[in-house]
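If it is no trouble, might I ask you for a protein's amino acid sequence along with its backbone structure tokens?
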Amino acid sequence: CAEAGRISCMSEQRTAVVTGASSGIGAATARHLAGEGFKVVCAARRADRIEALAAEIGGVAVVCDVTSEADVAALAEAVGERCDVLVNNAGGAFGLEPVAGADLDAWQSMFDVNVLGPTRVTKALLPALVAAEGVIVFVTSTAADLPYEGGAGYCGAKAAERSMVGALRLELFDQPVRITEICPGMV
């Protein structure tokens, strides 16, 4: 199956990584990708949940806090040299007070998980994504579009994530990697 000077076989199982796979959109995405024939690496902090999900779908469970350099390095090692799909789904809204009463520690956590986390994971897996001519999916939010009362920290984090996605798309214009963004509303 030689194609353009490299070996590429359709019979090879494709690999997908889903962060935040322990529940909600992440778990549903992991199930869907497994149904499409991907070997899914389920990454999240809650070991019991991702181990159960990985067992259910024939995937691989990797305990990973996207705010931890060591955890993300271990995830990249578990994935190996090729990654066809990365779904940056890990995130969360913490500290929903008005700005005047903002819990800045919670805001810091939101930025760490929603902005630095997907950046850290993308950076670590980018060589494997380029090798596979892969796809990076960022799950941001409609909160990046429109602020709401009590949502300044989360809206700001998701807007920052969206800006990072846009910059990454421009920076990788000449690489064989597609970048896309999914913007769900309240789930």
In short: The radius of gyration is 17 Å. The beta strands are 2-3, 6-7, 15-19, 39-44, 60-63, 85-88, 135-139, 178-182. The CA atoms of residues 36 and 173 lie 27 Å apart.
